Amino acid sequence: MLRKIIYGLMAVTVFSTLVYIVGFGWAFWITYNEPEPISQIIEDEVDEEEPLAEAPSTFRVLALGDSLAKGTGDEMGMGYSGYFNQLLGEIVGVVEYENLGIDGMVSTELVELVKKEIVQTAILEADIILLSIGGNDMRTLPVFQTVSPVDFMETKDSYLENLEEILQIIREHNPEAPVAKLGLYNPFPDFTDEATVELLHQWNFETLRAVEGRNQMVFVPTFDLFKYNPGLISMDMLHPSAEGYKSIAQRHMDILKELIKQTKHHSTIIE
Amino acid sequence: MFRLVENELKKTLLRKRLWVVLAILAILTVLFGYGEQYRADRMEHRITRRLGENQEIDQMTLLGQQISDIKRQLDNPYIPEQRRSTLAVQVEQLEYYLERGINPFTPSAAGFTKTYMENLVSLFLPLLIIILACDMVSVEFTEGSVKLLLTTPVPRWKVLMSKYMALLIMTTIVVVATGILSIVVSTYYFGFNGFTMPITTGFKIIEGSLDTSFVQNIPQWQYLIMVYGLSWFVAISIATITFLVSVIVKSSAVAMGVMMSLLVGGTFLGFFASDWPIVKYLFMINMKLPDYLSGAMQPIEGMTLAFSVAILAIWTLVSFVLSFVIFTKQDVLV
Which of A14, A32, A73, B289 could bridge B230 with an S-S bond, Cβ 3.0-4.6 Å? Predict the structure, then answer.
């Protein structure tokens, strides 16, 4: 009887060893094999001389940054830039917009993006720029546990450096268009402790200082909007829902309305 | 040789150590399975509380929207290369969920089995292996049977080899048992599903940071075999090193103590001394092999899958050779 068990065990061992060796080999193959990259880099093929559509009376909006700029989490797919453009249309008429929001974008990636000629052309031609960045930088910290002050400072300082560079580049290519920088909210009120929320406030505060110090730039806070309104958060429990995005867009409009009227006024005078 | 190995196995099975280890494993798996189910239920409650009863339908809408959204992004010429490949594999995964109408966050048997081993391989699985391995040789000394063993006409190295083979067999059995137990338990809790789900892998570490340009999806069953293959390799490595320690110290308790301290000490070193390059040559630091596959690896500079495997292989080989040299040459005074 014992002998049968032993033979059984040996058989299982031999079989599974073979399976494991196969698995081991696959693991190496998948890590070191280099298939065709998924796509070619398209941007080199785009004619960089070609300007965006000419329409002097059109108001142009440029949205830059992460998933919030893009509108992830909105069941309608609009995002705050979409709703903002609607509200804007009621004031200025025809609105053209370019949305360069990318999920998961961190500040270092945005710095790279705004250095591209194509994007700088878009910045040049924009009448308003909506900026959302930093959320993903913050998410590299262990916000569900205690964040070490040193890690936080490093992450924050590096993000602020990048933010300065981004704002600088924007102003270099477009000296006057209003820029609205979205502030961060806390999507995890049940899972974060006071100390971490305090860090979030600090992050927002220093962002505010960096932004407000510049000509025609404004910081748009969102922390208060979401604090007691869980319905404004999407089903993915991270991004805003359609309602959330609408609130953000309305807030942008409330803040920027006068500036927009001046800008529109300005461009009609030129014509 | 075959008879010797058979004999060693018989001794081990009768000694009940293997059964104790398997029992611990079974209990732990059930506990983990229950914990996972509990967590998933609470998550479900929390979502329902926030969003109301028709979240099921809304989730499918959200998925659909995410998919068309990503497809639009792929057309966008501004996207950097790395992000493009990440997006392409994301679409595949989302389409899988949408076609089957499943919520991406629900646990599955296959998902549980994968995560379970990914978590066990660096500490708990080695612990079990150490329990088995530490007394392969030591027990003969503590029970005094080493005299009988070495006075037979069988050469010493064959005696040791048969023990080593028996150890390898038991190690493999434990890894197999982990897989089978987790599949059985998770099927009970979550249903027999998730094996065809696409899992993203193909992460590379280039110059110390994660490169996602070559990511691709593979079915979860294949991914599972890869994870278990790597974990088995780690288990064999630990078993061999413990074997060596057992030969040297001749006491099960000391062998177990030494190995466990090394393991736990290694985990701490990994946290606190990650800037110290020497640390990456220790075997304890190189045990999280499945993390290379999932892109979760936080390596010390210079660590890649090939590197970690090579380090473990060297430690295993040296331990193997040393244990034989020591055992055959040492004077046995009982």
Answer: B289
